[in-house]
Each structure stands twice: as C-alpha cells, then as structure tokens.
Amino acid sequence: MSLEMRVVVENLTGTLFYIELGNDATLADLKKEIEDQQNLPSDRLILILDTNRSRRMNDDGDGVSLVDCGVQDGSHIYLFPLDDGSTHDVVFNWPD
Questions:
Q1: CA angle 59, 13, 30 (to 5 degrees)
Q2: What is the pLDDT of residues 18-67, one digit of tens each?
Q3: What is the structure's pLDDT at 17?
C-alpha cells in the first residue's frame, strides 16, 4: 500500500478542493479524480503546479508520476479547464 498525499487544487474562481492520492499516482490519476469530483472532462484540463518554477504539468504526459512532476503532500495545483472544444495552444506567462 502506497503512502497517501493530499493536494490542494484551485480553480479559476478561486475555489479550493482537495484530492487524496497515493504517492505512486500518475497525472492521469489526478485528472480522473478531478473529473469525478468536479464533473470536468479529464482530457480538457490544464494543471499548473505552484512552485518557484510554476509550469504546466500536462507537458510531461498523463503517464508520468505526480512525484516526478514535483507534487508532494500539500502541493497547490491550479486548474484551468478548457470548455470550448478547441485545440488551440494555451500560453501562460508568469511574472518574474
């Protein structure tokens, strides 16, 4: 049995919710939990890990482990759902 981690997810309105996953969880597992809790399609989610080098987690592919993405117990993840069905690239610029 793997250890558990609890992450904080924040949506565009600033609402926080919590996801509990095993330390062996993948990005796909996190997206599935978000889909189940928030009724958002997992293939339309952009996730940004709040660290000193905030970056899109999606760039690593759904099979990558959350630990390899830098996620740990108590991590804060920003959720950006895409709802228009478009395939446009989304660019995020973080202040220095």
A1: 40
A2: 999 999 999 999 999 999 999 999 888 989 998 766 667 766 677 889 98
A3: 96
User: Helix, strand, or coil here: 57?
Assistant: helix
User: Cβ contacts of residue 49 below 8 Å, gap of 6+?
Assistant: 55, 57, 69, 70, 71, 75, 76, 77
In the three-class reduction of DSSP (H, G, I as helix; E, B as strand; rest coil), residue 28 is classed as: helix
Rounded-to-integer distance, Cα 11 and Cα 93, Å: 17
Burial of 30 (0-12, 13-18, 19+ CB in 10 A): buried
Cα(1)–Cα(24) distance, rounded to whole angstroms? 10
